[in-house]
Design a protein that fits this description.
CATH class: Mainly Beta
Low-confidence stretches: 1-23, 30-41
Bound molecules: FE2/S2 (inorganic) cluster
Strand order of the largest sheet: 2-3-4-8
CATH superfamily: Rieske [2Fe-2S] iron-sulphur domain
Structural class: mainly beta
Largest sheet: 4 strands, antiparallel
Length: about 140
């Protein structure tokens, strides 16, 4: 890597390629406050509080299910442990997929999120999925 004068300057192609790769891979790096379309975290829709949104028997261990009616994804990382997240991708709001191999993927631009914590694993999203509080009553998953 050297310029035409023989110095060790990176080429324009190298710089653009490096910046482009960083923008796609990194979550939570730079770009905040630069008009990226990121959304502020939000609580669960008021209409869903106190309601049974799914049955525990419908949520596979190690997987999960998107409840499209409420834009909520319920996961069960291990037997009897349930998590609820806002299914709206923090990038532009598309609904993420049900988890597969511990990852929820956004079909719109490829962001990926951890099914246990909601943490952003791959951009362009810069923020995690918002986690909602829940409780299990009988066989039902209730948003609180
Ligand atoms: S809406 Fe763009 S990655 Fe999800």
């Amino acid at each position: 890597m050297s310029s035409s004068d023989g110095s060790a300057m990176p080429t324009r192609r190298h710089v653009i390629g490096t910046v482009g790769a960083m923008g796609v891979v990194a979550c939570g790096a730079a770009l905040t406050g630069c008009g990226t379309g990121e959304r502020a975290p939000a609580g669960p829709p008021p209409a869903v509080k106190g309601k049974v949104v799914a049955q525990t028997a419908d949520i596979p261990v190690g997987g999960g299910k998107v409840i499209h009616e409420w834009k909520i994804v319920i996961t069960q990382p291990s037997a009897g442990v349930f998590k609820a997240f806002n299914a709206s991708c923090p990038h532009k709001g598309c609904a993420v997929s049900s988890p597969s191999e511990g990852v929820m993927r956004c079909p719109c631009h490829g962001s990926e999120f951890d099914a246990v914590s909601g943490k952003c694993l791959k951009g362009p999203a810069q923020a995690p999925l918002v986690e909602f509080a829940l409780k299990v009553e009988g066989g039902g998953i209730v948003m609180v």
